[in-house]
């Protein structure tokens, strides 16, 4: 009788633990899937393309612009590329008014870019410096870090105005 009771207890114990083990593994796989999806959404950084809103980091008077067109490249703009943008927010007494169509050079991009030494550079936000048709900056100061890759793209004037070169 004691052997019969012990065998029943072991069967019940195994079925309880087995069921709990399956539920734990299902919960772990579900939580891993949620974490992986969250990491994927954070890592998915794309080109600056049409309708991307960018921060303006000079003292031209504009605060935010929306990209109308990337002038080079089929997919979009990266660091150092020129874009055509529309001013969405502007300061009242600035040189640039709301609604004006302007040119801008991308000085910070959330999409990573590889450097020739093997390192990669990426920023937390997308930022632009407004320029005229000849490529000269409209403002007289550039705020925040600016990557030194702009020198290769022939934007040395922006680098001279920048406070910090990354």
Automatic annotation (TrEMBL):
GO MF term list: large ribosomal subunit rRNA binding; structural constituent of ribosome
Gene Ontology terms: biological process: translation
GO cellular component: mitochondrial large ribosomal subunit
Keywords: Ribonucleoprotein, Ribosomal protein, RNA-binding, rRNA-binding
SMART domains given in the database record: Ribosomal_L14
Signal peptide: none
CDD domains noted in UniProt: Ribosomal_uL14
Pfam families per record: Ribosomal_L14 (PF00238)
InterPro entries per the UniProt record, alphabetical: Ribosomal_uL14, Ribosomal_uL14_bac-type, Ribosomal_uL14_CS, Ribosomal_uL14_sf
Classification via NCBIfam families: rplN_bact (TIGR01067)
Family membership: Belongs to the universal ribosomal protein uL14 family.
Protein name per the record: Ribosomal protein L14b/L23e
């Amino acid at each position: 009788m004691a052997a019969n009771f012990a065998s029943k207890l072991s069967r019940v114990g195994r079925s309880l633990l087995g069921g709990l083990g399956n539920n734990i593994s299902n919960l772990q796989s579900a939580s891993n899937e949620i974490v992986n999806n969250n990491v994927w959404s954070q890592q998915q950084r794309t080109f600056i393309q049409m309708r991307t809103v960018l921060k303006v980091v000079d003292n031209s008077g504009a605060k935010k612009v929306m990209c109308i067109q990337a002038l080079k490249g089929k997919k979009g703009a990266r660091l150092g590329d020129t874009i055509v943008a529309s001013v969405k927010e502007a300061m009242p007494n600035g040189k640039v008014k709301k609604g004006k169509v302007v040119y801008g050079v991308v000085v910070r991009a959330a999409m990573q870019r590889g450097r020739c030494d093997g390192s990669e550079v990426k920023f937390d936000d997308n930022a632009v410096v407004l320029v005229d048709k000849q490529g000269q900056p409209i403002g007289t100061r550039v705020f925040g870090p600016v990557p030194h890759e702009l020198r290769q793209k022939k934007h040395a004037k922006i680098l001279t105005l920048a406070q910090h070169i990354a």
